[in-house]
Amino acid sequence: MEEEMEISSSTRATESSSSDIVSRARKLLFRRMLVGIKDGRFFLGSFHCIDKQGNIILQDAVEYRNTHRSSPSPMEQRCLGLILIPSSCRTSCHVDCSIEEQLSLLKFQ
Amino acid sequence: MDWKSTEQASMERHAPNHSSSTSSSIPATENTVWADASPLLETVCEELRDGELIHGENFNLYAAMSALEIMDPKMDSGIINKYASVDEAIEDGLAPVPISLDKTVDVQCIIDIIDQLLACEATWHKGHSLAQTVFSCAYLLRPERTLSHALLDSYCKVIRATCKAVTSIVSDARTHEEEDLFTMAYGLPLNVEGDEKCLSLLNAVEENISRQLRACKALPSKRKPLEDIEPLQNNFDLEEGYCKALLCRLRFRKHFYHVLTCMRRPQGRGLELARKHIASCISELGSILNSAEFLMSNAYGTCEDGTEDRTTASGRQAIGFDANLNSRISAPTPPRSIKILSWKKAIEYFEKLLHHLDIICSYLLDPSLDVLLRFVAQFQKAQPDLVARVHLQLLLVQDGKLYGRYPILAVIIRAARLPEVIMRHDIQKNEYVVQLGQIVINMLKVLCTNAAWQRRKLGKILQDWRAIYVQLELAFRKEFGEGSSISNGENASAGILKHILIWVEEQTYWIAHRFLVLGFELELYSPSEYCMVYWYLYVVLIRLAEKTHLKMTVSDGSAKQKGKKRKDSPKDLAREARIPPAISFLQCQICLAEGLALLLAALRNELMVLQSPSPFNSEHERFIQHFELLQKACIPDLISYPSFKESTSHARLSSLVMYNYFKDAQKIAKEVKSSFLNDPDRLAELCILEQVAEHNSVALNVISRVGALDPSLKIAIAPWEAPQVYNIGLSFFSRKDDQTHFSKIKSSNSLAHRPCATRVAATFRITAAMVAAHTAVFQVAPTATVIF
């Protein structure tokens, strides 16, 4: 609890920088996002929502999976629609962007 | 346990190189790259306040709730469990071909696979998806892999062909709305080239094994097989047993496939042949069952399952099955885990199915709708499963004709008791008559569905029947004017329409009657509602009898007119004076229903029993809930809750004793029995009616002697289970008796036999069987015991 309080007070204190980061994340909305999860599948969909816990909702998502666990193998895919990917099972997260944008995304610190 | 660790290992393998494999196999759009957003998102999450979300303007929390949660075992059917794909499973050795290099083990394993497939097939028929049951077998999923193994290949082929045949029958019938999972076969190899040759392949394999069987039987002493015939397996002592076990399994398949194809022949032409195959199937099932002992005693491993739950005869787990292989294919269903029926249960299921199919095949395709409707109602009493019901439906309605033979209009004309010559009349061009034909076909289809679905649909089609009646009547009036006399010879179509109108009404009441009776089968009525249900049944039965009688007199009248031209027959006149047995049968039911309605009402009025005021709804509301569909269709006219109250609120036991309905019912039943000697079903029903009437009549006398309001009486009411009759026992105890005593009697289920004659003064029986109901198994209802 105390930690949370601290975070929220610090958020208020550094409002300018936090809103900067949040607004940068906001710019990712509706972009194509590729999320990998721990059982080896990937989900590609448009970024719809994220909450404080890091759970992501993708819209019009497609599931990709390797037909074999050993890496180079053909991929199967199927459409799933609206999906929620809990942060606990997420192993990677990429967004589709141009190279210039990639640089700006990386140097947020 | 083991796979978990391998999975973890593979995930670790996967994790480091995931980004490279991602970017290579899932390309970003042109001129763009995949940028890692994890660090950004991580920071953002830290910045966000509790409950704060980042979302666009189109975000809707309610809609977001319906998102599929990934890795939730109840939502995500794609979770990679043991195998990432069928191919990987096969490479991993899930389904080796041959199963073992040791031929004895190979044969044992194949028998296990065959048994497991039978269990899976029964589970599929019972309402689970094909992908999770039969096609959980990896051998079926990769047809090319089994080609080298004749026995396994022919068996896989016949299984796929059978599944395909059953799926197509069920989807043709289109009555599987309730069981819509059944035909889902997307992504499964059901149309494999070469499967159509399954029977010839199966025959060749069967021929080979029977030769092997003969060979081993011919040489019992030498213990050395003939040179030219290679034995089935290596152990000579077991050769005969394994040959036999395989043969009955292969033959069952062959005959079952024949049953399916014969029954699909148009116009019921293959029914006779189908019966022969059904008989063979049943006998092969017996042999399969008998082979269990041999297979269990020679199992090469230990059987892990309990004997009851085992899905194979030997008790071993069959090789090549994994329920999760296809979980992604069964997408429209949540990824529920299912339990495969045990091998014994599966055999029982197939025995039941074959028995039901046999009943269908032995039906004589009677063109009379009356006979047909009684047959269907009787058939449904045995609660047949989907596959059997679908076969019945496809037999009844083919190409818009009854059995594919009789135009539906001819059937209606026969049912309305009109002479067949009318078929040539242009009445059949009347659009409402054509519509009526459609409605009749629809009704026949509905009657073949499961009880719950059937009742709902019957309630709804009642309105169609009502509407077509009104339209036919309007057409009738418009064409011939209200006052015009129909006896006029030139107005033949008016006469025909009049006949048809009467029949439509009769049929409507028949449907209403079935609707009410199905409520008993489905246990929709509580004891406190029996009074209104029996009362409604009584009013519907009255109308049904009226219309049936009218139909008979009108048609007899017109027949007599024709007969008169030739000669007067005194016999005809004598016959006319008698009430037709069909009407007496209805009258008997009417007396019982009325008697029961009034008895229940009297008990409530005088003794305050069977009043269970519900905290949720009033009696009026329950009346509407039960009979809304009938009321909407005005069946019968001018019947409503007030008329129910009016006719039951003054019911008294004393007046019931004065006019004993049960005695009347008993008398009619006794008289009319002789007319049904060649109709065993209705005779059996009449016997039950008679017994119940007699029982209740005696009980009523006892009450009248003791005095209903005698303060020393204590009344308890409880429905209980009986094989054919649905009873309510009203037992009168003296005051010193207590509740425990009553429940003791009740649990021994013997109130009907009045075990303690001194204490139980009277027992009433209420029967739903009297209204042509059911042999359904009724649960002992929760004790609706009211003690005073």
* Biggest sheet features of chain A: 5 strands, antiparallel
Describe the main β-sheet of chain B briefly: 3 strands, antiparallel
- Fraction of residues in β-strands of chain A: 35-45%
Helix percentage range of chain A: 25-40%
The first-level CATH class of chain A is given as Mainly Beta
Q: How many domains make up the 3D coordinates of chain A?
A: 1
Structural class of chain A: alpha+beta
Q: In which range does the helix fraction of chain B lie?
A: 55-70%
Number of domains of chain B: 3
Query: What is the terminal separation of chain B in angstroms?
Result: 61 Å
Structure description:
The complex is a heterodimer of chains A (109) and B (788). Chain A is α+β, with helices and mostly antiparallel strands. Chain A has a single domain, classed as Roll (SH3 type barrels), CATH 2.30.30. In chain A, 30% of the residues lie in helices and 42% in strands. Chain A has a five-stranded antiparallel beta sheet. In chain A, a hairpin with a 4-residue loop joins strand 1 and strand 2. Chain A is globular. Chain B has three domains: 2-57, no CATH class; 86-353, no CATH class; 420-652, no CATH class. Chain B is 57% helix and 4% strand. Chain B is built from 28 helices and eight strands. Chain B has a three-stranded antiparallel beta sheet with strand order 4-5-6. Strand 4 (75-85) of chain A pairs parallel with strand 3 (68-69) of chain B, so a sheet runs across the interface. Chain A: Residues 8-19 have a biased composition (Low complexity). Chain A: It comes from Populus deltoides (Eastern poplar). Chain A: Residues 27-86 form the Sm domain. Chain A: Residues 1-21 are annotated as: Disordered. Chain A: It holds the Pfam family LSM.
